[in-house]
């Protein structure tokens, strides 16, 4: 192992141990680790490791940052309009217990997340959960956590649900409808929905003690519907834009959208909301509050993590994992295929709980192609490439649900709770996320094997 790889691995482990142990200083830890990577990479401590400040800035996913900023601002004005309270009235009138309220919101978030970015989904659905929990004087922690992990789960359902799906579609030559049926077999959509069903049963079981009845007293009056209209317009525009490919997945000569298109959409609608609010109130007081209410804590945490992940990728850790898995390819027998399939799924789950699944997936896709060729060439069992491709997508997409810092949606959800005065420990988060993730992944793991082997 190269010296820079050992260094990156040590810093990475210490960073995540500190972030797990001390929730309040997570942004400080991530920024400090990012600064250390940039410092070491800039002064040339290791000849094979170069990582300057401009390199680090390019590693930050500005699309996610802009989406959080724009959507948080619009959502703040949406909350101030009292529309979440009105929506909570509608839900309370149809759902008669806290448990089923959480289940309904989780399923709703999952449906949206199959077409809209997970972070944006959490920002849109969580305020409704907060409004309901405030009226019932109960903790919103279980509801927001379930919404976040449900949003992450559904990212694998469609080609446009998550960046990892887009990467896989290009590598495997799949189009939008192939996620529903491929070569006459059920695609990832049905596998993901089966996992969502199993995970929903887990939520119902975990919340079995929350049987308190919900009773509606009075109705919330909404005087300004424009913030709600703009939020819906944000969702619709994101869905429509999702069918336009990014440059990396566009065919030659095909029109493609910029990498920060979703962020631009969210920011533009926020700016429209600010202008409307200032005109509606005849002053800028609420518009200024909306800008101040954006969660800059979450920005710092995410920016630091993006830079840290970029550092470990440049240090060769992700490539090392890929080479290790490729070296384990067996004789091509059914048992060796099952072994490598199992390793790809569960190592992806474990690693995606701590590192960004996008660079990991991008690195592993060519590795998976090589493994498939090696196993098929060994003269044993015939292997369809989708077995390992879909196994990789299942593990890499759902694995981020395991930990509070494994996915941007989780970080965003916990940021929302923190601003409401609820500090959620890693142990409390994982009380919900671990059984949820294991149920979803195990279901997908078994189904993919049955379908493609």
Structure in a nutshell:
The chain is 71% helix and 1% strand. By secondary structure, it is mainly alpha-helical.
What's the topology here?
Blueprint: H1 3-21, H2 26-43, H3 53-59, H4 62-80, H5 83-94, H6 98-113, H7 118-136, H8 141-153, H9 163-172, E1 181-182, E2 185-186, H10 188-206, H11 226-242, H12 261-281, H13 285-292, H14 296-314, H15 317-327, H16 334-352, H17 357-377, H18 385-398, H19 408-419, H20 426-452
Antiparallel strand pairs: 1-2
Distance between the termini: 35 Å
Number of helices: 20
Beta content: under 5%
Major sheet summary line: 2 strands, antiparallel
Number of strands: 2
| Alpha-beta content class | mainly alpha
Order of helices and strands: HHHHHHHHHEEHHHHHHHHHHH
Task: Give the integer mean of the pLDDT values.
Answer: 83
Radius of gyration of CA atoms, rounded to a whole number: 22 Å
Number of domains: 1
Shape: globular
**What is the percent of helical residues?**
over 70%
Low-confidence stretches: none
Strand order of the largest sheet: 1-2
What does this structure look like?
Helix content is 71%, strand content 1%. The protein is mostly helical. It has one domain. The protein has a two-stranded antiparallel ribbon with strand order 1-2. A hairpin with a 2-residue loop joins strand 1 and strand 2. Helix 9 (163-172) packs antiparallel against helix 18 (385-398). The longest helix has 27 residues, at 426-452.
Based on the model shown, name its key terms:
single chain; 453 residues; mainly alpha; two-stranded antiparallel sheet; 2 strands; 71% helix
